[in-house]
């Protein structure tokens, strides 16, 4: 076992993991944050997306030990005391999900996009969610949700 110290959703955590354990499994099993989903385990679907030091990563492609010292954000870290994150609220309002399996990854990807580009073009939104596969919704609702979030966040609402 290897001791790994991380800050997860603003809280310092210490876990002991096998050297070959994937971060997605550590997040779910050792940190108890099951909002991060396991999909393909091959880096294709984006269901396991988390943010490490601000950048979205597919946590099935990262060893937990390599996250030593990192700041990790999972979907559980999005909502605040005032309620849902604006991106979560927009997905809710615009029906940007059905089964919700892809949703945590979509949300974190959308957050990263809107921090980098508060007024993305449709092409930029399409490109951003390129690595997040949804089997249910079709991407129109996802893109509409991200557009809605962008507009609201720029307006400060
Ligand atoms: S489970 Fe990580 S990309 Fe699919
Ligand atoms: S809402 Fe079901 S996979 Fe996207």
Structural commentary:
With 157 residues, this protein is an alpha+beta fold. It folds into two domains: 2-76, Roll (Ubiquitin-like (UB roll)); 86-155, [2Fe-2S]-binding domain (DNA polymerase, domain 1, Orthogonal Bundle), CATH 1.10.150.120. It has five helices and five strands. The protein has a five-stranded mixed β-sheet, sandwiched between helices. α2 packs across α5. The longest helix is centred in the last third of the chain and has 17 residues, at 139-155. The mean pLDDT is 97. The structure holds FE2/S2 (inorganic) cluster (2 copies).
Brief synopsis:
The protein has helices at 23-30, 86-93, 103-116, 122-128, 139-155; strands at 2-8, 11-17, 49-52, 55-58, 71-73. The chain is α+β, with helices and mostly antiparallel strands and 157 residues long. The structure holds FE2/S2 (inorganic) cluster (FES) (2 copies).
């Amino acid at each position: 076992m290897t001791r790994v110290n991380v800050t997860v959703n603003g809280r310092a955590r210490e876990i002991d993991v096998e050297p070959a354990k994937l971060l997605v499994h550590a997040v779910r099993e050792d940190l108890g944050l099951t909002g991060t989903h396991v999909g393909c385990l091959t880096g294709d679907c984006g269901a396991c997306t988390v943010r490490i030091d601000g950048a979205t990563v597919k946590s099935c492609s990262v060893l937990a030990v390599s996250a030593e010292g990192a700041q990790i954000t999972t979907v559980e870290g999005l909502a605040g005391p005032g309620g849902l994150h604006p991106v979560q609220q927009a997905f809710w309002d615009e029906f940007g999900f059905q089964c919700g399996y892809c949703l945590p990854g979509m949300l974190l990807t959308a957050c990263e996009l809107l921090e980098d580009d508060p007024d993305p073009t449709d092409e930029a939104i399409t490109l951003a969610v390129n690595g997040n596969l949804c089997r249910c919704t079709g991407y129109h609702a996802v893109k509409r949700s991200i557009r809605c979030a962008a507009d609201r966040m720029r307006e400060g609402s």
